[in-house]
Amino acid sequence: MSVFHRLLAIETAGPVASIVLAEGGRVLARHFLEEPRTHAAGMIPAIEVTLGKAGLDRRELTAVAVGAGPGSFTGVRVAAATGKGLAHALGIPLFPVSSLLAAALTEQVAAETFAGVADPSDAALSSAAPPIGLRVVLFDARGERLFMAAYRLGADLPAVVEEPRFGTLPDVLADLRFRGAAFCGDGAIRHARRLAESGGTILAPPIGFPSADGLVRALDLDPDPRPAPDPHVWEPSYLRDTGAVRARRAAGN
Predict the structure, then answer these.
(1) Distance between CA 164 and CA 144 in Å, rounded?
(2) Higher pLDDT, 106 or 83
(3) Which of 126, 128, 147, 163 registers the highest number of CB atoms within 10 A of its CB?
């Protein structure tokens, strides 16, 4: 039996948390948590609701996938801790997937769930997502700071043009590779005017927002998905230190 026979995917890096139960890339059930403050407390009940929709028990799961970040520190930790706990308790593999890649692969699934993250009447946003080509994912990190990655979409797993990293809007605008690209994510929406002025197309949500559907699609497209070697010690990718770490470093200088 394939390890993905009963896959539970959890993504909490963005404003909307999502849980998907999938089989061989086909979604059996999904559930959303739309209020960020409920992600931690509501995660286990949401997983039970998702399993209940498909008439399954958690002991029937064969793998768990989680959004590996970056994103909200608290949000990323929710998926990581939950996924690690399930992998340990059930003895199943844990598959971390970049939340930026999941966002690049999120399409028009449950678009109404993401309606509140942008004004749908904004003329700068495009609802027509090109199925192939360069897609630059930008997560807002406040001010002009961004978590970013770039992928070239095609029929297979997207090719990485820019590895996930922490950067700034001027970095993006100065990168000639991104001229005429399709931009997505809450960072792209926040800076839509300047990106559009540089020749970019800004895609409307839910494209560019991390989702469990994106995790499932990424694993389905990957010809050789690799689980975390040891779920106990695996940690998500924050791409920058937490505020507490920065404060300790500053105090030591």
Answers:
(1) 17
(2) 83
(3) 147
Distances in Å between the alpha carbon of 108 and those of 42, 104, 196, 204, 209?
24, 12, 22, 10, 11
Q: In the chain, count H helices and then E strands.
A: 8, 11
- How far is it, in rounded angstroms, from Cα 32 to Cα 216? 15
Query: First CA to last CA across the chain, in angstroms?
Result: 55
DSSP 68: -
**In order of start, what are the domains of the chain with their CATH numbers?**
7-102+210-252 (3.30.420.40), 106-203 (3.30.420.40)
CA 98, 120, 33, 185: dihedral to nearest 10 degrees?
20
Distance between CA atoms of residues 37 and 58, nearest Å:
25
Peptide bond into 205 cis (omega under 30): no
Of residues 241 and 90, more confidence is placed in: 90
**Prediction pTM value:** 0.89
Does the pLDDT of residue 122 top 80, yes or no? no
Would you give the distance in Å from CA 21 to the centre of its chain?
Answer: 16
pLDDT for 38 = 79
